[in-house]
């Protein structure tokens, strides 16, 4: 067994051990599949949930009684086959292609179309439609479904997970996709300390041990854990990250496989091999490197820095619709980059692009006006986080005066009561959100109404009383509160650029009304992240508590569990993620929350897990580690009125299935 050098996520509890496997039953008397252009009958939707995906054509037939017809392909690919430039479609899509349905309420079998256009702010996951597995309900593992991986089967109390790949599946350059690509990612990227100095330390197992990877054959491999591992709730690793790489291409940029790597680095103009490797890997957006093979529906053929980035259909894409048509429906996707946000909004409102997504609801009223004219359609999608706006005071600040102030419970509760959330929601969010502390979504079985509604009332008198009680009763001539050392209490708040600055300004004004002086800076993510690592932050206005719509995994941070994206306790985070080797040990109440967190992640018994999470949320309600403003307003989506198969429910498509653009068509 190959030892897992990276610290793989803690094995966490399995509510119901089950396999996400391809169907093996034979469908007797099956009739033809759904014709092109027809609405897909509800009877074909997977009864297990909202996944509307079938691991293989055999599973589709077994569950629906319908057979997938002979495979067909886009005209541009058929022409290439006729010219001898491509193998036949059945030789390109694997022996067991994924059968993919739309996420929309009305689901249609689409038609091949030439072009789909977006502006940069309207990116909808074209580069991310390649996850290993998916989750239609992040709180219930029975809603897991296959994507790149054909099946995932737990055993030994979910300590061992066996994965099967699709035989005959290929990268966009026609090279086979096998377990070697998984091994290469695991051993030579994720476990390489030069590439990953802090490999997934936010997901370290409780006792500091690591799991392992077994490569069984070209299409079968395992991950082995020391504890039960609920993959569906660790969505950020096997679910949302690709966990595989094109080994046949990337090995040339790795010193383990290329003894001349130094010369190649110098020739390429990089300083280190790791810089070269990450550049060629082009993992997150996949719009930079035209040479890298991909598994996504489209591959980039005109990369940035071109103002119009062009993606072309991947001839080896491994998914079909219920009519047997190889996906995607669009030949090309054109993405305008470097467009000013206001210009992008105007283009979307005028119907000049087919899709535009903007976080927040600033565009929603004017977009709905345009919708009445018939140029565009408008909907909203949820965010992966439940909260839109968090105040995170750094409870481990290096400042010896600020630290005890921030750690004072009365201070945090006073700040919470000083915020006029109703005003913010009315003025900046058109009444489309509700006041809320940082908490689980109402869709989650861990939802705690007490935590969500703690200290939400706008009560300046109570805020002043609590701030006085926190030792800040003295003020200067301008009415600002004084620190214990007699200086004016000035707190530096930072945030990243976005549509939340106006809401943050109201918060700053509210805090001024109770004598707190807040200095605001807007930073780029790079500078912002470096300040966090250096523990230089005092207060952060965080636009969302990322992840609480996606399962429990490590983003439970706002509930008192330190984590790498959190800003409220950097030294406690260092302690937590290093298994106590670095940072500062947190106080007993935080350690209690952490202990309960491990019980949630390790236990197979749902009642035990629910009880432990209840204690975590009780501790959070008693302490308000972070201060929530409202629930997240989601994204405003403007799209071409002729575009079909667009999901319109307010759900979080942010992660494993970002709207499924590969099944949209005109």
Give a structural overview.
By secondary structure, the protein is of the alpha+beta class. Helix content is 26%, strand content 15%. The strands form six sheets. The protein has a five-stranded antiparallel sheet with strand order 1-9-10-8-7, covered by helices on one side. A five-stranded mixed sheet has the order 19-18-20-17-21. Strands 4-14-12-11 form a four-stranded mixed sheet. The longest helix is centred in the C-terminal third of the chain and has 18 residues. The protein is globular, with a radius of gyration of 26 Å. The N terminus is likely disordered.
Number of strands: 22
Q: Alpha-carbon distance between the termini?
A: 49 Å
Range of strand content: 15-25%
Helix content: 25-40%
Please give the largest β-sheet. Answer: 5 strands, antiparallel
Keywords:
666 residues, globular, alpha+beta, five-stranded antiparallel beta sheet, 19 helices, disordered N terminus, five-stranded mixed beta sheet, single chain
What is the gist of this entry?
By secondary structure, the chain is α+β, with helices and mostly antiparallel strands. The strands form 6 sheets. Strands 1-9-10-8-7 form a 5-stranded antiparallel β-sheet, with helices on one face. Strands 19-18-20-17-21 form a 5-stranded mixed β-sheet. The protein is globular.
């Amino acid at each position: 067994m190959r030892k897992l050098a990276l610290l793989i996520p803690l094995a966490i509890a399995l509510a119901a051990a089950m396999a996400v496997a391809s169907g093996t039953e034979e469908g007797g008397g099956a009739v033809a599949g759904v014709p092109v252009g027809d609405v897909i009958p509800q009877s074909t939707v997977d009864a297990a949930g909202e996944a509307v995906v079938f691991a293989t054509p055999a599973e589709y037939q077994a569950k629906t009684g319908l057979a997938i017809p002979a495979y067909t392909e886009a005209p541009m690919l058929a022409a290439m086959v006729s010219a001898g430039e491509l193998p036949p479609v059945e030789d390109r899509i694997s022996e067991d292609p994924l059968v993919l349905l739309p996420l929309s309420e009305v689901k249609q079998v689409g038609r091949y179309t030439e072009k789909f256009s977006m502006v940069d702010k309207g990116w909808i996951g074209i580069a991310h439609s390649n996850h290993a597995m998916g989750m239609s309900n992040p709180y219930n593992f029975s809603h897991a479904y296959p994507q790149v991986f054909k099946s995932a089967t737990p055993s030994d109390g979910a300590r061992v997970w066996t994965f099967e790949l699709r035989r005959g599946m290929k990268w966009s350059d026609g090279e086979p996709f096998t377990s070697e690509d998984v091994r290469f990612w695991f051993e030579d990227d994720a476990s390489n300390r030069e590439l990953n100095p802090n490999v997934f330390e936010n997901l370290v197992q409780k006792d500091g041990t690591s799991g392992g990877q077994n490569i069984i054959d070209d299409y079968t491999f395992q991950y082995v854990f020391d504890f039960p591992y609920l993959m569906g709730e660790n969505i950020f690793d096997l679910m949302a990250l690709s966990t595989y790489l094109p080994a046949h291409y990337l090995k040339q940029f790795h010193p383990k496989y290329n003894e001349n790597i130094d010369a190649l680095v110098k020739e390429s103009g990089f300083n280190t091999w790791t810089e070269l490797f990450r550049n060629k890997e082009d993992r997150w957006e996949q719009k930079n490197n035209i040479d890298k093979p991909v598994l996504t529906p489209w591959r980039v053929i005109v990369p940035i820095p071109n103002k119009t980035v062009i993606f072309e259909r991947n001839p080896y894409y491994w998914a079909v619709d219920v009519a047997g048509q190889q996906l995607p429906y669009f030949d090309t996707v054109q993405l305008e980059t470097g467009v000013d946000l206001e210009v992008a909004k105007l283009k979307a409102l005028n119907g000049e692009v087919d899709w535009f997504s903007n976080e927040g609801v600033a565009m929603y009223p004017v977009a709905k006006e345009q919708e009445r004219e018939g140029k565009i359609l408008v909907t909203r999608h949820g965010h992966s986080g439940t909260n839109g706006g968090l105040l995170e005071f750094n409870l481990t600040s290096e400042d010896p005066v600020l630290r005890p102030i921030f750690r004072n419970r009365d201070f945090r509760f006073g700040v919470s009561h000083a915020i006029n959330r109703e005003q913010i929601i009315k003025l900046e969010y058109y009444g489309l959100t509700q006041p809320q502390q940082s908490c689980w979504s109402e869709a989650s079985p861990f939802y705690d109404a007490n935590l969500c509604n703690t200290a939400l009332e706008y009560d300046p008198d109570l805020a002043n009383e609590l701030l006085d009680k926190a030792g800040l009763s003295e003020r200067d001539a301008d009415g600002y509160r004084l620190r214990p050392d007699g200086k004016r209490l000035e707190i530096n708040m930072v945030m990243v650029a976005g549509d939340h600055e106006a809401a943050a300004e109201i918060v700053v004004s509210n805090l001024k009304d109770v004598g707190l002086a807040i200095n605001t800076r807007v930073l780029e993510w790079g500078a912002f992240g470096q300040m966090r690592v250096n523990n230089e932050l005092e207060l952060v206005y965080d636009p969302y508590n990322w992840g609480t719509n996606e399962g429990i995994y490590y983003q439970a941070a706002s509930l008192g569990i330190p984590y790498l994206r959190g800003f409220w306790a950097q030294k406690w985070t260092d302690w937590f993620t290093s298994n106590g080797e670095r940072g500062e040990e947190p106080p007993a109440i935080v350690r209690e929350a952490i202990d309960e967190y491990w019980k949630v992640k390790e236990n197979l018994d749902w009642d035990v897990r629910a009880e432990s999470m209840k204690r975590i949320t009780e501790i959070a309600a008693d302490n308000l580690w972070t201060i929530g403003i409202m629930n997240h307003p989601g994204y405003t989506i403007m799209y071409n009125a002729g575009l079909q198969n667009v999901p319109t429910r307010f759900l979080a498509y942010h992660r494993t299935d970002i709207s499924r653009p590969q099944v949209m068509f005109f």
